Each structure stands twice: as C-alpha cells, then as structure tokens.
Here is the input.
Amino acid sequence: MTYPNIVILNFDLGIRANYDDLYRFLDSYEAMDCGNSNAVFIYPFKGEDLSYEDKFEQVKKELERTAEFSKNDRIYVIVHNNDGVARGKFLFGQRKTPIWDGYAVKEEDDNLPF
Here is the structure.
C-alpha cells in the first residue's frame, strides 16, 4: 500500500502565533487530529514523479500564502514517495535539543588515569 498524497504535519508555534490561519489551512484539507499539534491530510500535489523536495516545496509555498510564521515557529512535515517511503523535513524552523535529553544513562569511556 502506498500513500503518495498523505502529509503528516507537526506544528510548534508560540503563544502569540496566528493559529487561525494554520487551522484554516488544515481544515480546508479536512485534516485529522493525531494528538497535540499533529495532523494528517491528503494533499493534491501537482505533477507526476515528484521528489520529496518537490512535495515539501509545494506544501511550504501554500503554507506561506496561507499563514505568517515567526522566526521561532516550527512546522515539520512528513511526505511519502510513490513507493510509500516516508521522509520528513522542517519547512519552518529547525530541530532543538529535546526536553528528554539527559534522562538516559549513557556509557562514557573514562580515559583519565585516576
């Protein structure tokens, strides 16, 4: 089974963000809720044999036409190729140090002689 038109979108917006525009975008594609700040929807990509980058660019351009994002807002999107293989990318913002960093005990080589 393949999912070439499925888009999974995660958003991390600030408290002053314009959620209405993003919600309007998601609602226009009848996006389904997938937990806090996560949605999935079918997107009508234009063209054939599109690369991941082509798909990311199409979604990003429409989001830019629909909503304004601040420098701290983050939008992460996952798209699929024609074989159903998924790939994700930040369309806006970038990866941060996760809040769970430091919880796991990690082995370290102690090279000190004392």
